[in-house]
Amino acid sequence: MPQFRLVCPPVTIEVAYNSGTVPPKADAPKAWFVDVFLQLKNERKTHPIRPQAPDLVAAQKIAIEAAVLLCEQHGVMPPDCMLENPQWKVIWDRGEATVREVFSDLEKQRKIAYTTVLTMMGVLERKGHLTKRAGERAYVYTPTVPQDEMVKNMVDEFVGRVFNGSAQPLLVHLVGDRRIAPKELAEVEKLVRARRKQ
Question: Rounded distance, CA 131 to CA 28, Å?
């Protein structure tokens, strides 16, 4: 039974928590395993490697990257919901960036291949989310829309796809998430009070 499942036609991602051995041994290390499928008409393509990760957050990131690469391999344009990745944040923070600069920043956070960054930025550029111009040694990429507008579009698309357009389940989940700091909850409460006065 997958603990995480994302269906974003034509891609399906499943992340399951299980042992690295079959059948599992009592002392076997546990890991999150990622399965990525691409449905092409009546044919299903599966990612050739079943990646694994130490935790769910890492597994979800790996799954998105694997899905984009699988789409590229079969000539399918990845859907926008597959492109919610930290590369945008790096470029927003910098204002503009080369593939090498984005790769260097992301590599400080986690292990990632340069070719993965190159592929995903190429997809973002072809979809119109980034523009590029020739720099002295490499192409320089710039976001086509402000960060707040892109975040709004992502959240609207996520709420519509996962919660059928209702933000209430998402808000309930966030309020109950112990990773949300008290200061952040206070800011949300302030926004709610201001909204009620409108």
Answer: 47
The tokens of 151 are what? 């975040």
Q: Select from 46, 130, 138 the least CA-distant residue to 92.
A: 130
Between strands 30-40 and 11-19, the pairing is: antiparallel
| CA 74/CA 113 separation, integer angstroms | 20
pLDDT along the chain (198 residues), means of 10: 65 64 50 76 75 71 76 74 67 89 87 81 82 91 82 74 75 76 85 85
Instruction: Kindly calculate the radius of gyration of the chain based on its CA atoms and give it in whole angstroms.
Output: 19
Q: Is the pTM of this model over 0.90?
A: no
- The 10s digit of each residue's pLDDT in 96-108 is 999 999 999 988 8
Give me the domains of the chain, ranges plus CATH numbers. 1-79 (no CATH), 83-166 (1.10.10.10)
- Phi, psi for 119 (deg, rounded to 5): -65, -50
70 burial via Cβ count (<10 Å: 0-12, 13-18, 19+) = buried
